[in-house]
């Protein structure tokens, strides 16, 4: 009978509608033909129905049929081992014949196991049928107690153990690894055998091509569902550490290394290995591995070894997105390892013994650079985890000694991700927005925003979250300074992003009209940031600039400055736009002069630093200051006195400072000092026409000189100071005295700033102002003359004595009424002057005057005249000390002026301490105190300065 007819007849009889008896009879009559055509049937397309009907045609009720079935299965296996078919074809065929194994003779099953193992060893099974056959044969044999093998009776367990050992001892081929791992997951192994096989599989990883590793790992993860999962992790960690992570680290700088090591010539590129790593992480997180097992092993991974295992950290970052529990365990695992390493480094700096005991470890910064660099190849599997880790590091409490280092690591991660993967910037800024709106400790987040704007401006500028941060910036009850740092953090974008500049200006403009003083201060801080950081190129004269800007567009009209605006038919340049904006910002700041003292103090203390390198603004600022200062001058211009009473307002029992006049005078003094740019302007300008800038400087200089020359520019009755009383009058007088002392400090600063080589009486004038200031300060400490005559106690005044007598007489009469005046006339603490109003720049100038060998702006005679005054030394040093102890010193000032002060004091007071003691003991000790304060600032974690840079200078 022909093949086609035979198969069609078998299929027809094999249908369910026909009785099986006809199929049995037909197969029994045509056994030889069936056996002949089995190999051909196996390779045909519709093999499934044909083989199924053939096997169903021999019932299981006789040994003869079992032998025939064994022959059919044997033929099928032989055919599949020799002829290549599709994977699906082979899988379905093997699946069908494996169903018959429990019904077939044991000897045949043992033989098929041996043949399969032999085909593995000889590598002659083209379809790898043994991965299906061996597990099913072992399952079929498990129903029997003993078998006969090679003439010996063995238990099934012994036979299985022999087969497993044979497979273990054989050296596998690379192409057999994946099917072998797939096979063993269906074979029940003892713990010891399982561990041996897992180790053997992992031993091949180093020799495999990168593309061959992920399939093997996929099967290994399924094989190690219960145990030995840590072995796979360890081998993969070693593989990627050697092949990938170490290659990404920057090589050590060695000028003598000019040759290429042969070991560096790899057969596979970093891109191939990186792709392999990404696929492996995918299998771990979204493949066959049980997430709970991964979390368990990550949690138990040694903390001291974690930073040496970048693969484990990558895996932890990927697993952190599996849920809240996973996020907590995985991120805290990495965070705690970084904190422990940081603490070890801090202890190593303090102790040589710790440095000797601690083993060398990895550099955390280099590790984070490697992880962020590699993350772009991970198909977004680890990016979210790295971002969350960065913010977890930023959340470290500032009271911890390792806070600044952890913050630095967090900022490093975010900056590198934002720069290398711009699509991550919106997610970073969104989390940053949440932190800035909800957290109370904002310093590290504001610094993070600044670093992102500075180092990745293109990535963050286009994000709408940046405008949201500016619009939601509101002061907290604790103050406005932390939020002012947020507004200032975006200043790197000012010079190329009109959108950010517009948003900030509109937000600050709205805040400047707020009823709350803190909101107004925050708005002013934003305007000052714009003024400070907008670049303006070298201009012409001030008058020329003003005339050029006359027809410019208003920046404050709710309309954005158009980049293509034209002026007089020509394109408006960036310099002209920036100058116009700065001029109108200054005009807006005029409103600050009618607000409360807190706003004015901020304006006076910051305006010079913001505008000192923009001479085109000085005329407008000087005019603003002049118009405001004349309100507090006596009508007689030659009187040289200030109306201190107008600076303080008394409303019932409330006393309010309305004008910080000392800060105003110091701001004026700063703008009156001559700079190199202005000197060049004066040389280039016409000698016959006095500019508006020069005219205003001349008028203000006359005012300042009259105040300096006046015997007393204030009208405060110091005969009966009463500064310690709680009456409104005493409070008002205390505020007036504080402002007067500030005025003296400002005038002293003006005298020093105007000191030149041609000055003849500068030292005398300076010492005179100091003596007047010191006299006023001493008057706040002693009792008035009238109180001494009456032998009254230290805190008594005339009013309190009368009140006490009245109360005593009333008590004798049996009456003791309580009067409001008696309650008010209580005693407060002793009078305390305000901290010195100087800035670090002037502190450096005054220290140079007293202790520097090279003072280019003062003659030797005048310098020596003031240097001989011991009392002036003490007062100047105490003033500098009070400035350095304030909490608002800028990092730039610390890195420049404070370093210079420390250098001068070190050379004159520390190195030559005996000579300084010979001059004056108290001056020497005060110099040491100021030097110590300088070092405290330089070593403060608040500024995070590099010690090596400034210690070499000192």
TrEMBL record:
Residues 786-817 are annotated as: Disordered. Residues 550-780 form the FANCI helical domain. It comes from the Eukaryota. Pfam families: FANCI_HD2, FANCI_S1, FANCI_S2, FANCI_S3. Residues 69-285, 383-528, 838-953 form the FANCI solenoid domain. GO terms for biological process: DNA repair. GO terms for molecular function: DNA polymerase binding. This is SFRICE_007333. It comes from Spodoptera frugiperda (Fall armyworm).
């Amino acid at each position: 009978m022909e093949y086609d007819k035979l198969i069609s007849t078998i299929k027809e009889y094999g249908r369910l509608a026909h009785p099986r008896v006809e199929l049995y009879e037909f197969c029994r009559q045509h056994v030889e033909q069936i056996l002949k055509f089995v190999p051909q049937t196996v390779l045909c397309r519709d093999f499934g129905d044909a083989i199924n009907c053939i096997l169903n045609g021999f019932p299981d009720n006789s040994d003869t049929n079992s032998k025939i079935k064994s022959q059919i299965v044997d033929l099928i296996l032989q055919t599949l081992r020799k002829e290549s078919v599709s994977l699906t074809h082979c899988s379905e065929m093997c699946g069908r014949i494996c169903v018959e194994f429990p019904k077939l003779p044991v000897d045949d099953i043992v033989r098929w196991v041996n043949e399969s193992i032999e085909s593995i060893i000889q590598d002659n099974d083209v379809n790898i049928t043994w991965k299906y056959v061996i597990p099913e044969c072992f399952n079929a044999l498990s129903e029997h107690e003993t078998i006969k093998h090679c003439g010996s009776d063995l238990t099934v367990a012994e036979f299985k153990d022999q087969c497993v050992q044979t497979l273990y001892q054989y050296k596998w081929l690379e192409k057999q690894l994946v099917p072998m791992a797939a096979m063993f997951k269906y074979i029940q192994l003892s713990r010891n055998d399982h561990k041996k096989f897992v180790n053997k599989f992992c031993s091949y990883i180093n020799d495999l091509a990168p593309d061959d590793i992920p399939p093997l790992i996929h099967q290994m993860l399924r094989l190690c569902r219960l145990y030995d999962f840590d072995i796979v992790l360890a081998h993969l960690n070693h593989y990627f550490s050697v092949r990938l992570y170490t290659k990404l680290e920057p090589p050590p700088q060695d000028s003598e290394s000019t040759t290429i090591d042969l070991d560096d010539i790899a057969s596979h590129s970093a891109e191939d290995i990186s792709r392999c790593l990404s696929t492996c992480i995918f299998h771990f997180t979204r493949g066959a591995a049980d997430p709970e097992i991964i979390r368990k092993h990550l949690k138990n991974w040694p903390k001291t070894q974690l930073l040496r295992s970048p693969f484990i950290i990558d895996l932890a970052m990927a697993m952190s997105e599996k849920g809240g529990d996973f996020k907590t365990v995985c991120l805290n695992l990495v965070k705690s390892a970084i904190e422990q390493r940081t603490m070890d480094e801090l202890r190593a700096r303090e102790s040589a013994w710790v440095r000797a005991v601690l083993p060398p470890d990895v550099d955390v910064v280099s590790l984070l650079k490697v992880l962020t660099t590699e993350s772009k190849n991970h198909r977004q599997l680890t990016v979210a985890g790295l971002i969350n880790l960065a913010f977890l590091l930023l959340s470290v409490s500032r009271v911890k000694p390792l806070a600044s280092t952890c913050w630095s690591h967090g900022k490093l991660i975010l900056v590198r991700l934002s720069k290398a993967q711009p699509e991550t910037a919106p997610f970073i800024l969104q989390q940053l927005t949440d932190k800035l709106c909800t957290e109370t400790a904002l310093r590290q987040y504001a610094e993070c925003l600044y670093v992102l704007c500075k180092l990745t401006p293109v990535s963050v500028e286009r994000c709408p979250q940046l405008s949201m941060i500016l619009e939601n910036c509101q002061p907290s009850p604790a103050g406005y300074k932390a939020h002012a740092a947020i507004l200032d953090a975006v200043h790197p974008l000012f010079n190329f992003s009109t959108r950010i500049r517009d948003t900030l200006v509109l937000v600050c403009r709205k805040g400047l009209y707020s009823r709350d003083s803190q909101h107004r201060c925050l708005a002013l801080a934003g305007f000052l940031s714009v003024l400070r950081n907008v670049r303006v190129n070298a201009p012409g004269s001030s008058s020329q600039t003003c005339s050029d800007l006359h027809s410019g567009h208003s920046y404050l009209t709710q309309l954005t400055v158009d980049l293509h605006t034209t002026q007089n038919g020509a394109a408006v340049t960036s310099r002209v736009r920036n100058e116009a904006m700065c001029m109108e910002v200054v005009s807006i700041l005029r409103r600050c002069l009618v607000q409360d003292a807190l706003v004015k103090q901020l304006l006076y203390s910051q305006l010079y630093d913001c505008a000192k390198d923009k001479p085109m603004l000085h005329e407008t600022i000087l005019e603003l200051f002049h118009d405001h200062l004349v309100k507090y001058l006596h009508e007689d211009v030659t009187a040289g006195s200030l109306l201190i009473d107008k600076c303080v307002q008394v409303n019932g029992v409330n006393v309010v400072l309305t004008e910080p006049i000392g800060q105003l005078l110091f701001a004026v003094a700063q703008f009156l000092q001559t700079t190199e740019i202005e000197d060049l302007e004066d040389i280039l300008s016409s000698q016959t026409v006095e500019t508006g800038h020069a005219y205003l400087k001349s008028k203000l200089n006359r005012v300042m000189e009259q105040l300096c020359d006046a015997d007393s520019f204030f009208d405060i009755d110091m005969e009966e100071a009463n500064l310690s009383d709680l009456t409104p009058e005493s409070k008002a007088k205390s505020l007036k005295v504080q402002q007067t002392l500030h005025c003296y400090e400002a005038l002293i600063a003006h005298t020093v700033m105007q000191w030149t080589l041609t000055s003849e009486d500068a030292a005398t004038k300076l010492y005179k102002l100091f003596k007047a200031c010191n006299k006023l300060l001493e008057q706040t400490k002693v009792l008035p003359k009238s109180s001494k005559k009456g032998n009254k106690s230290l805190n008594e005044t005339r009013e309190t004595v009368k009140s006490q007598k009245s109360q005593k007489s009333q008590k004798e009469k049996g009456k003791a009424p309580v009067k409001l005046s008696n309650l008010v006339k209580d005693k407060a603490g002793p009078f305390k002057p305000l901290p010195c109003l100087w800035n670090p720049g002037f502190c450096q100038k005054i220290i140079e005057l007293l202790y520097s060998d090279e003072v280019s702006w003062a003659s030797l005679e005048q310098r020596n005249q003031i240097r001989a005054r011991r009392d002036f030394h003490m007062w100047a040093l105490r003033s500098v000390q009070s400035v350095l102890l304030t909490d608002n010193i800028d990092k730039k000032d610390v890195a420049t002026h404070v370093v210079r002060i420390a250098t001068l004091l070190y050379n004159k007071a520390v190195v030559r301490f005996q000579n300084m003691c010979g001059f004056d003991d108290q001056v020497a000790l005060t110099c040491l105190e100021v030097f110590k304060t300088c070092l405290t600032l330089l070593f403060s974690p608040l500024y995070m300065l590099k010690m090596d840079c400034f210690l070499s200078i000192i």
